[in-house]
Amino acid sequence: MERECEFINSVYERASKDIKTIVLPESDDDRVIRAATWSLRDNIANIIMVGDEKKVAERAKKLRVDISDIAFVDPLTDPHFDEYKEKLVELRSHKGMTPEKADEILKNNYLTYGIMMVKQGVADGMVAGACHATADTLRPALQILRTAPGVEMVSGFFIMCVPDCDMGEKGTFVFADCGLNQDPNAEELAVIAKTSAESFKALVGAQPKVAMLSHSTKGSAKHALVDKVVNAVNIAHDRFPGLILDGELQLDAALVPEVAESKAPDSYVAGHANVLIFPNLDAGNIGYKLVQRLGKANAFGPLLQGLSRPVNDLSRGCNSHDVEGVIAITAVQAQLAAK
């Protein structure tokens, strides 16, 4: 099925070439049920849903979708339950996890159950968040999967596809961090810039050009908030010399060549940025939603970067097409993780 967003079309094509298994723990959400059936129809992933198949079948009948090819796992009857419980106790005993606690969690918290399936290799990745807060999705992922080797922190990003836009990479951008770290310091901003550039390269396939955003461009304003971004730029240049990155830049200077010529004429990123690093979560979250709602952009995420296995969040305002898109992205991330 052809879609308006060139980026997501390429992701669907990549996902279909090496089918991965994605677990969806929110089996009681109609948007997720639809997206699960569409993912199978479009051949982008094998799907496992956590929950009671009979109850989901009743909802699917009302939605007029076919769930016959979806695999279901019910924690109350799953033969792997004891394996997951034992592993959860092993991983979290230092935090007071007992067999009794693990039993209760795994029977009642489908998100944790899905994470255990990823941990044990039954699934290649997980998508959740349609009806759960980001913290609920991220907490078990961090506790059980933890960060990938050599990664300093987990952060969140959106892939934004803006229609009829000649900025960025044919209208495609990475926005970070828009869903996880509330007020990153300069060192953390530099790390977020690096991992976001890597995510852009891996998923979009183009050269990342990173703009560290601020309300100031090259010293036009003086404030501690500006100083943080300036320090982050210096740290990034020092630690990641191969990164194409500049700042501090106002948004128009980062994206519009004519404005860049006036405000930052010597910048090699200004006017051409495709990876936008926001100074804090307020700016990032407001920014992506403005582009999504007023610019009619497709917003995929918040995607998580830095975990040892791919687990991605969803906005609770998502629709079924958004869910299917994140399933496809998660499948491609699983392909990359397996290399």
Textual characterization of the structure:
With 339 residues, this protein is an alpha/beta fold. It folds into two domains: 165 residues, Rossmann fold, CATH 3.40.50.10950; 140 residues, Rossmann fold (3-Layer(aba) Sandwich). Strands 8-7-9-6-5-10 form a six-stranded mixed β-sheet, sandwiched between helices. A five-stranded parallel β-sheet has the order 3-2-1-4-11, with helices on both faces. Helix 4 packs across helix 5. It starts with 5 loop residues before the first helix and ends with a helix.
Q: Gap between N and C termini, in Å?
A: 28 Å
Order of helices and strands: HEHEHEHHHEHEEHEHEHHEHEEH
Helix content: 40-55%
Strand percent estimate: 5-15%
Low-pLDDT segments, ≥5 res: none
What would you call the shape?
globular
At the fold tier of CATH, the topology name of the largest domain is: Rossmann fold
> What's the story with the biggest beta sheet?
6 strands, mixed
- Spatial ordering of strands, largest sheet: 8-7-9-6-5-10
Q: What CATH architecture of the largest domain do you see?
A: 3-Layer(aba) Sandwich
Total count of strands = 11
Question: Number of DSSP helices?
Answer: 13
Residue-averaged pLDDT: 92
Number of domains: 2
Gyration radius over CA: 21 Å
CATH class of the largest domain: Alpha Beta
Structural class: alpha/beta
